[in-house]
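ok trying this again, last paste got cut off
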Amino acid sequence: MTTPLSLGVHVGQQNATMAELITLWRHLDDKVDWISIWDHLYEAPPAGGTTPHFEAIATLGALASVTERARIGCLMFCVPYRNPALLAKACVAIDHIAEGRFEPGFGAGWHEPEFRAHGYDFADVATRFDMLTEGFEIISSMLGGAETTTFAGEHFVTDAVTCVPGPYGDSIPLWTGGTGRTRTPQNAARFCAGWNVPYVGPDEFRRLNDRLDAACEAIGRDPATLQRSVNLAFHIGATPAEADAELERIRSQWGPELADRVTAGALTGTPDQALGRIAEYRAAGADLVNIALRLPVNTDALEAYLADVVPAARRLG
């Protein structure tokens, strides 16, 4: 039997007070299946660190403590920012606060201005992916029940490190993400329970899924055991007039050519049109569809999405 489609919200923790974020998370908790944040030290898109913004680990502790139902995620922890063994222990603490609902994701990072501003070397992409794979080696062992983890890599080292207590349950599901052609699918197949990609259209999502299938099959893993998810920018309107106004705003802000790229990986139009778009991702292999919010958000549009689109989307085959 096909697993029902899950619906989530990915909230960038910027341009809002912690009280505003908590209010939003509590509102979402009994309406969606997944709530996640990102791991940035500056705002995204980059604006020189001028937008109020909260660090991820502390923010995840707050998110875990004020919700009860939704799965909690981070898309994605930037492994070059933290020692992986320390990051694994932070994940355990968050998982216990969430009583087993935490499913962290891990990536190589991309936001060069925040790397350099905070004193991190912005290495080439191959080196950052080397760091990510070493991080997965350590984190997957520590969160997967190993009594001790010893690892000697080029970038990270552990010496019989323990992880006590371990996860709230038997283990913590790990995620990764992105559009990488080779190493991202390999890491997903080898280490992860789930994979996420932001802002791609359904056809591209299907092509990326095919790569994941091939990576799973190459190591003898059933591809059906790897969850697939997509983050979509949220640009719908509660009414046709509001939907048209939002599309016009995007065209004015980005210009005609870039506007098409922005909307390719977005939900636009009315709630009914958004449901049709979600159905396309479901047909392309999505197990989870997240809307990506940047506050402030159009409250009427969000409420229409939560009340009308989410329940209908869960019934998609």
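PB: full thing came through this time. The mean pLDDT is 96.
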